[in-house]
Amino acid sequence: MLGMLPGNGHPYSWSAIVNGYDPLKMAACPYPMISQYLGAQPLESVRIPEAQVTHVWTDNPAEAPLVAAAAKIPHVVKRPEDVIGAVDGVLIATDDGTDHVRRAQPFIEAKIPVFIDKPLAITRKELAQFIAWKKAGAQILSSSGMRYAPALNQLRGKTWRWITSVVCKNWERYGIHGLEAVYTILGAGFLHVRCESQPGSDIVYCLHRDGSQASIALIDDAVGSAWTIHAYGTEEECTVRLTDTYPTFRNQLLAVITWMQTGKSPYPFEETIELMAILIAALESRKRGGEMMRVSSILHEVEQENLG
């Protein structure tokens, strides 16, 4: 379990879901929501027996021993690279889509499977590098936990004309949550993206090839309404809240562990590439004052950069 940035407590939560945890030491975790949703489960049930988080490193060295104590991780390392040769796979638990190439490179070169927290890459250069590594045979997986939210099952397999998704904070780090949830409902094939922005919010409009439309709102202080999806169809409408955090993360981690054990990805890497292209298109639309961006153009230009 490698890396931890301010505002993201995945090393605590993910490690605890896999290893189990010490409730008293987890109570000192700076993200109280983690203790709350872990504590809502029977203590003995919080564990994935098929795997173990054995090593941890955090960007702030003082935090790693606290994570290790709370989530029963036996080894704290001084450098991320110190886990090479001692683990079957690594989880890069940072949500900075401009710095994942640097973090992943030692493990890609060591031919170790790497799961990378969302978003994989929000720049053309970073995305091109991951595509090149994947084509060369690297084992790379990335996703938002929202892909695995149980509530989404209510919306899959139906015909929708418009879907709205609301998330708090910012597009760069949290846009993927709202986007990937919508993407798993509509599937691949997004055509156009446009971002209308003002201080504290980005509203991203997406057009799908089947004619469906989606609006994904990133509103900095919309904490009380975040994680809401509303789907509108020709014959029905449905609202869901993606707030069942524990089973969402547990489902995600089970998928990651199965992938590391079998080498079989739970979904095509092309989906992740398209999702990153949509993120990038929205960022570029924002810079251009809300200009409509074609997803295919972003993908083509990233591929050309890759070839270059």
Describe the structure.
It is a single chain. With about 300 residues, the protein is an alpha/beta fold. The protein has helices spanning about 10-20, 25, 30-40, 65-70, 100-110, 125-135, 170-185, 245-260, 270-285, 295-305; strands at about 55, 75, 90, 115, 140-145, 160-170, 190-200, 200-210, 215-220, 230, 235-240, 295. A hairpin with a 4-residue loop joins strand 8 and strand 9. Helix 1 (about 10-20) packs across helix 8 (about 245-260), helix 6 (about 125-135) crosses helix 10 and helix 7 crosses helix 9. The longest helix is centred in the last third of the chain and has 19 residues, at about 270-285. The mean pLDDT is about 95.
How are the elements arranged and paired?
Layout: H1 10-19, H2 23-26, H3 32-39, E1 55-56, H4 64-70, E2 75-76, E3 90-92, H5 100-109, E4 114-117, H6 124-135, E5 140-143, E6 162-168, H7 171-186, E7 190-198, E8 201-208, E9 213-219, E10 228-232, E11 237-241, H8 245-262, H9 269-287, E12 293-294, H10 295-307
Parallel strand pairs: 1-2, 3-4, 4-5, 6-9
Antiparallel strand pairs: 6-10, 7-8, 7-12, 8-9, 10-11
Helix pairs in contact: 1-8, 6-9, 6-10, 7-9, 9-10
Largest sheet properties = 7 strands, mixed
Task: Give, in order, the helices and strands.
Answer: HHHEHEEHEHEEHEEEEEHHEH
Based on CA inertia axes, which overall geometry fits? globular
- Uncertain residue segments: none
Q: What's the alpha carbon Rg, rounded to whole Å?
A: 19 Å
Average of per-residue pLDDT values: 96
Biggest sheet: strands side by side, in what order?
11-10-6-9-8-7-12
Number of helices: 10
State the total count of DSSP E strands: 12
Q: What percentage of the residues does DSSP assign to strands (E)?
A: 15-25%
Q: Helicity level, as a percent range?
A: 25-40%
What structural category characterises the helix and strand content? Answer: alpha/beta
Distance between the termini: 34 Å
